[in-house]
Give the backbone structure.
Amino acid sequence: ALRLSYLRAGGHDPAVLDQLLHLQVEATVLEKGTTGLHGGRRMGDPQPQPPLRTPAVPAEPPGAGARGLDAMLLAVERENRRLEDELLALKVRRERRADAASRAAQQHMEELTQLQAEVGMLRCHTEWMGRWLPPAILPPPVAPPLPP
């Protein structure tokens, strides 16, 4: 949640993102430590071995190679999350543009319909008035001014 709010607020400092990722990893480790192996167990699954007995798979394999793989995996997960956030932002922008275009088209259609109705009313009015009005009487033409 912290990382998402930081990214949505425009944060992009790699050092801060690394710290947030480190905090997330610590929280995950703490959560797994408190819930133990019972957290993801389904009904009917066999009971897990207690951690004090020899576990079938160690929680973290020894050696620097495993830590390097974990770091690479975390980096890939971080990049995936960043890309998902970017994709979500692009989708939101596209939807906003589509909504704005749709509203503009709707407004233009309403204006066009109103103008067509007005033109129809004016045609009817001129046809009706043309039957009842006498032919227009124009004033006599004005002669051009005489030269001095």
Observations:
- The radius of gyration is 38 Å.
